[in-house]
Amino acid sequence: MMRAFSARLFVVMFCAGLSRLALADGTAPDLGQARTLGRQLETAVQKGDGAAAGALFDIDGLIDRSTAGVTAPQQLATSFRQGLKMVPSLPKQLALTAKGGNYRFLRARQVGGESRVLFRLFPPQGGVNYHDWVVGADGQGQLKLVDVYVATTGELMSQTLRRAYVMVAAHANPTLLERLTGRERDFINNLKTVAQLAGNLRANNWKGVLDAYATLPKSLQEDKSCMLMRLTAAEHLRKERHGEYESAMADFARHFPGDPCLDMVCLDGLIEQKQFDQARQSLDRLKTFTGGDPYLGVLRGNIDMDEGGPANFKAARNEFETAKIVEPTLAKAYWALVTLDLKTNDYDKAAAELTEIERTLHIPVGPLEGKPLYAGFVQSEAYKKWKAAQGGGK
Questions:
Q1: pLDDT of residue 188
Q2: Measured CA distances, 17 to 20, 21, 61, 296 (Å)
């Protein structure tokens, strides 16, 4: 349900430089300006226009934020910048891979003194993620996107890039390595173990992840990226190591209270374990983070439907119907209603909902025979009438 586009990237707990966040007159972009930029990005991504999406992004601004305050040889700094410029920007990548997914602009807002535009992403492979883009200005004073907070990693992209830059710079500049202290120095000294941790994660070697994590120094066991890798592994092993999973969640929540990435990672597990109240609390926190998203209502309705019972079914229907009203193009709300109708054997409503999906959303409903979810429906009079109204070709 929530499994999403979750890049497991190394991050560093530095404050990125705040350059390029002001317009030419020294003021921050107002929300109206930010909103306009958000709408432009939404349009470009939905059209699959990579050039238009990429043009909205200031790669130099991102690099400035990622490298601020780090002393590195000029050749290294130049190579780092040139290398990043050769990689398609995230807006361009989103536009080029948008087919089958959905990228929706939700709102413009102020976060920590920055102007941001929040998006909801439904990746083609399923799941959900949120991108909170930082709005600033490029070197010519033009309004641009200069950074992005990714909910499933809980970090700004500049922080992710900064760790890689510090790692390379420290090896190229012994003076910098000597000046590093605490977590930064521990990271460099334990790079092999951290790489092993990440390698085990990519290989789905969940036990290996936990074993490698256990050997890290305390400072890195409290690093967000390492804690997320531990949490992901513990979630997959929660049946065998339930105590480890509970401990990983508690540790993360203690060190990063209110961070949405914990809820993004753990919601599926809570639902699978039928911890419905905790799952609803996760949705409450995500609602606070997003400022409200109709899709969260669909997720809440799904939880009500999974828990079952007349009162929960009624609550689920209300959530789905409300989501449709707030966001009339949210297909997941319509399909959730169909599922609820089938679950409650209300086949007339199911037929009406399928008709609305085709007429309002222009989504063709394929053959339903042979699909377990629709077994009762295809035997009903409601299905015969619905199929006849479709011309009998379904």
A1: 73
A2: 9, 10, 10, 33
